[in-house]
Design a protein that fits this description.
With 167 residues, the protein is mainly α. The chain has a single domain, classed as Methane Monooxygenase Hydroxylase, Chain G, domain 1 (Up-down Bundle), CATH 1.20.58. Helix content is 72%, strand content 0%. The protein is rod-shaped. The mean pLDDT is 85.
Length: 167
């Protein structure tokens, strides 16, 4: 049962790490709404560090799974998910512990996915707004805002736009 306990402990660590990432993602959403680019860069650097912390946890999880399979007499190096592994555990209490950790981790991952999708939409909207703003400033208006007699137009193109993109 040492391998099962190790697997559960690793899954709990992964769940806690993803909870921390979730808090960071919520902070990221607030930073995006505030349009604070410097803070956004800092948050993204922290996210990168969190992602690097996941690598050793994932390899430890895989190691615990393979150790559990060997304890159960399975020699193959299968890559099983938690539901499949739970079918190899016959003690109801151990199976319940494993499935509870799986449920918590899956819930946290779902929350993280949702907030990341929201953050992505916010960033896309911000970029669309910037693009629209640049188009407004850089393009020539179809009509001038003031009246000009058609005979007064002498081929002078007038101003190109509010923002001269050739500069």
């Amino acid at each position: 049962m040492a391998a099962l306990d190790r697997l559960i402990a690793v899954l709990q660590q992964m769940e806690q790490s993803h909870r921390d990432m979730l808090a960071l993602s919520e902070n990221k959403r607030q930073v995006i709404v505030k349009n604070d680019v410097d803070q956004l860069i800092a948050v993204m650097n922290k996210e990168s560090k969190f992602m690097k912390q996941q690598e050793p946890l994932e390899s430890e999880r895989q190691s615990a799974v393979h150790e559990l399979l060997q304890e159960r007499g399975i020699k193959s190096m299968l890559n099983l998910n938690i539901t499949e592994i739970s079918k190899l555990i016959f003690d109801p209490a151990d199976k319940q512990r494993l499935l509870e950790v799986q449920k918590k981790l899956a819930g946290t991952l779902q929350e993280l996915k949702e907030i990341n999708q929201l953050n992505q939409k916010l960033i896309e909207q911000s970029l669309m707004f910037i693009d629209l703003s640049m188009d407004i400033f850089a393009t020539r208006p179809e009509q001038d805002a003031t009246y000009q007699h058609p005979a007064d137009k002498n081929g002078n193109p007038g101003r190109i736009g509010l923002f001269d993109t050739r500069a």
